[in-house]
Specification:
459 residues; 5% helix; Immunoglobulin-like; elongated; mainly beta; 2 helices
Length: 459
């Protein structure tokens, strides 16, 4: 009797091991933890989860986990990061309360292999966010601010959590982004309470800045509002982002403000926020507004405007503590002049396409580098405009290359791009409506060694 019982038990075990469901391979797939199956299955490399992404409260959905490769054990364990929102058992997800839960499937053979699946639970009249997007400017200067906006779907009174990362740095408060240090930054906006509903937005922090330690044009008159002779009512000067244009062994920094409209009788000076700058630093060389009798120096560090016009002011500080200030009549000239050498020409939405209405460039009398610099400031462009530089001197010369695209340029800001002119050269194409300052430098060896700088008007 004992022999018959033992024989029957052995046959049953053999049947279980080899006779059910297709043989030993299927048995090991279902029982990967048994020692005799360790060498029969492939190692898992990844998991994919399929199934619905929404479920109502008190309802269920079924998720399926596929472990790859197909010859690996399909055994997984299921977990939810928020059991108060959704629970999961053997892939069956039940909605518990409105919100979003992350469902994870993990291989029982190798717990480093897992996958996640986001499930939004709706119901009980509660609306949950499903997506968020960010819009706004894509660049900000150090010390300046831009405003970013978000759109959350479905619409509602959602609170937003702002963070940032990257080579540069910013501070963010309610979508107001202030540049701290230059570099690329990724700004992230997430719905409070739903951290998985988030969006990233690229912002470039540039070195051009207005800072309390920089300089201001202060005074009284038509171009300033508020209390006279206070920094708060002044016009901030930008630090020149291209120091190579004013390079000199003892030059520390140059600040500039372009295209200020001033009226006869206006009075102004330059301040660093704590003190006004002496009038001794004003240059009066040829081409200066002082020499042209458009302004004159007065007592108490003031400059008095004698003729209404548009002016550009440049202020330099030197290693020996000295300062110098250059005031130029704004060179935003419509139409060529007899002594003009270079012009900005092209197809413009607000100009006729001919030299008669091109912008003439003026010679920069304060440029101290090698060669000659020409410039024209505050030209308004519309999207789709194209232009290049042209000189009618001699047989004529078209500038189709030499454009600088470093940080701080209108190229880097995404306002302009190079486009083919159809003749083997290129034009500058305007991407977005903007106002630009354009500089052209003849190199020390003549106009064949030149460079061209285009920057956004920041003041």
């Amino acid at each position: 009797m004992k022999k018959r019982l033992l024989l029957t038990t052995g046959l049953l075990l053999v049947g279980l091991l080899f006779g059910c469901g297709g043989g030993e391979d299927d048995f090991c797939t279902l029982n990967p933890d048994l020692p005799e199956c360790a060498e029969e299955l492939e190692a898992p490399t990844s998991i994919t989860i399929s199934g619905a992404t929404t479920v109502e409260v008190n309802a269920t959905i079924s998720l399926t986990a596929d472990v790859l490769p197909a010859g690996a054990s399909q055994s997984v364990s299921w977990t939810s990061d928020k059991n108060d929102v959704a629970t999961v058992s053997n892939g069956v997800v039940r909605g518990m309360s409105a919100g979003t839960a992350i469902i994870r499937a993990t291989s029982t053979v190798d717990t480093t292999i897992s996958a996640t699946h986001s499930v939004v639970v709706t119901g009980d009249g509660v609306v949950v966010p499903t997506s968020i997007s960010i819009s706004g400017p894509t660049s900000v200067a150090v010390g300046s601010s831009i405003q970013l906006s978000t759109q959350v779907l479905p619409a509602g009174n959602w609170a937003i959590d702002w963070t940032s990362s990257g080579a540069g740095s910013v501070s963010i408060a309610q979508g107001t982004v202030t540049g701290m240090t230059a570099g690329a930054v990724t700004v992230t906006a997430a719905v409070v309470g739903y951290p998985e509903v988030k969006a990233d937005y690229a912002v470039t922090v540039t070195t051009s800045s207005v800072d309390p330690s920089d300089y201001y044009i202060i005074g009284s008159g038509s171009f300033v509002t508020g209390t006279p002779w206070t920094t708060a009512s002044g016009v901030p000067m930008q630090e020149n982002p291209n120091p190579d244009r004013v390079s000199f062994p003892t030059l520390v920094a140059e600040y500039m403000v372009l295209s200020i409209s001033m009226s006869q009788g206006d009075e102004w000076s330059i301040s660093n926020g704590t003190a006004t700058i002496s009038t001794e630093g004003f240059e009066t060389g040829t081409g200066n507004a002082l020499t042209a009798n458009q302004m004159h120096l007065a007592a108490d560090n003031k400059v008095v405007v004698d003729a209404t016009g548009v002016f550009s002011v440049y202020f330099k500080t030197w290693e020996d503590g000295g300062t110098s200030t250059w005031i130029a009549a704004d060179p935003n000239i419509i139409g060529p002049t007899p002594d003009a050498v270079w012009y900005v020409v092209g197809s413009f939405s607000n100009w006729a396409d001919n030299l008669a209405l091109a912008h003439a460039m003026a010679v920069n009398p304060s440029y101290v580098g090698a060669g000659i610099e020409y410039f024209v400031t505050n030209i308004s462009f519309q999207a789709g405009d194209q232009f290049k530089l042209y000189s009618p001197v001699g047989t004529g010369r078209w500038i189709t290359s030499g454009w600088e695209t470093d940080a701080g340029s209108a190229f880097a800001a995404g306002l302009i791009e190079l486009v083919s002119d159809g003749y083997g050269g290129n034009n500058v194409g305007v991407i977005s409506a903007c106002s630009l300052n354009i500089y052209f430098k003849d190199g020390p060896n003549g106009p064949d060694t030149y460079s061209c700088w285009i920057e956004p008007v920041t003041v």
